[in-house]
Design goal:
single chain; 124 residues; alpha+beta; Sufe protein. Chain: A; 3 strands; three-stranded antiparallel sheet
Length: 124
């Protein structure tokens, strides 16, 4: 399969990938997908008041999944709580040229981010 230049860029040098190092703020975590589904994603973020202080992710999946996590993390680093809640992972489809049959990968990312938002809402 051929991948867009944007996918190749994010796959080669993913932004905010790995474990979130210790730091200030409250930690929340959200996970989506599973290995059985062919894609697994976990986002962790530290927040204080209404702003993300730090963000990291780990994923297992195809290059589109990895690139979408990287692009999402780049867009959400330093965002407000409202921006996190309003983020639509399907907006990553066009810039990454994600084929229609891979749209479910974006929904897995959306699920993980929604779980981060829910944890934030629950005092986490």
């Amino acid at each position: 399969m051929d991948y867009s230049g944007e996918v190749a860029l994010h796959f080669a040098a993913p932004r905010h990938a790995g474990a979130l190092p210790p730091g200030p703020g409250t930690l929340v975590r959200g996970e989506g997908g599973s290995l059985e589904q062919g894609a697994w994603v976990v986002f962790e973020l530290r927040h204080e008041a209404a702003r993300v202080l730090a963000l990291a992710w780990q994923a297992w999946g195809c290059p589109h999944t990895i690139a979408a996590c990287s692009l999402a993390a780049g867009k959400l680093a330093g965002c407000t709580r409202a921006e996190l809640q309003a983020f639509d992972a399907l907006s990553l489809r066009a810039p990454l040229d994600v084929p229609a049959h891979k749209t479910g990968r974006l929904l897995i990312i959306q699920d993980a981010l929604h779980k981060c938002s829910a944890a934030w809402d629950n005092g986490g």
